[in-house]
Amino acid sequence: MRQGWRWFGPEAPVTLDEVRQTGATNIVSSLHQVPIGEAWTEAAVRERQTMIETTPPGRSKLTWSVVESIPIPDAVKRNGGRAKAEIEAWIASLEAVAACGIPIVCYNFMPVVDWTRTDLDHVIETGATAMRFDHEKFAAFDLFVLKRAGAEQQYSEDDKTRATEVFKAMDEAEVAEITRIITSALPGSTTEPLTIPAFRDKLAAYAGIDANMLRQHLIEFLQAVTPAAEAHGVKLTLHPDDPPRSLFGLPRIASTAQDYSALFDAVPSPSNGMCYCTGSLGVRPDNDLPAMARRFAPRIHFAHLRATKREGDGRTFHESAHLEGDVDMVAVLKELVAEDQRRSSSQSIVFRSDHGHRMLDDLNKTVTPGYPAIGRMRGLAELRGILCALDATPN
User: Fold this and answer.
1) What is the extent of the structural domain holding 209?
2) Biological process (GO) annotations (predicted)?
3) Would you name the residues annotated as active-site residues?
4) Pairing of β 26-29 and β 63-68
5) What are the 10-residue block averages of pLDDT along the chain, 395 residues in total?
């Protein structure tokens, strides 16, 4: 298995030399500066690749192995195959990536909002901070800040009572902060920052689109783009919904084994693959993560390895340390290693320690939310330790 590290580009707080110090060898990156829906050029991809892969004297080599992500425009999610211009631009971006020899592309199909949290620096018992999704705070935002039409019908009476109490206890700064976190698009997001009125308009545009229709739109997208991926030897990997359940009344269609099975049955191309994210999938207690890794092993080309800890009734959760929480990371890695050993080295699974606690000196620095250096390095070291114990020393 190949050790990856998500790098947000030359403006990121973590430099490439610092990535080398973590032991990672494979870079996961994207052209975040390109507007969503605009086709990437080979020249732009090559420029980023040269930046990553030009190795200074005496330094270890880095390879750009995964693009995360080429954003899928909202028009494709709402219209499927009818969004021809947007799909053609996406294929052009894919071809630019392929021309540079980058073999894996990660993407997601979450409408309006990408990965979602309510707290970016929740203090945990060690004194470090973690990201958290607080169901009651989320409901308070949905009901009393966003004031989404129809939201009242989607929460229980107990939910609404608790959300009311939470909202009344929030001051203006706290309301502004949760609004910023939810609407401004978190790092690596493939959706656009929104104002509250624009947020309502986006939600209204999905009226009448249920899970079956959204799934059909994804299938139509895959039917259009997988021939190009196959022709260029690129593996497409769909990231799970995060969290893996409906938010704001929107359908989500990459949350369970059944969701992925339906997509693989509909588009059986070997280029139609999975980004196996233990943190996202692990939020649901009904997702058996080792079983999913075993079932979809040939489809897994990229893995996000992190753990979450469910709280209370499970709708609230926080990011735990990589070997804690609700993910049996040893069992997961046993399955991934078994699959990886069946492959050639060129097809080896790329994994990265996803997210991480803000800790030690990173508490005194500006960091990218979810992507501090030290917490991720701790996670990578722990994952590497499991792999060495399994006699599968990572590359």
Assistant:
1) 2-116+201-389
2) D-glucuronate catabolic process
3) 239, 277, 304, 354-355, 371
4) parallel
5) 96 95 97 95 98 96 96 96 98 98 97 93 97 97 96 96 98 95 75 86 94 98 98 98 96 97 98 98 97 98 98 96 96 97 94 97 94 97 96 81
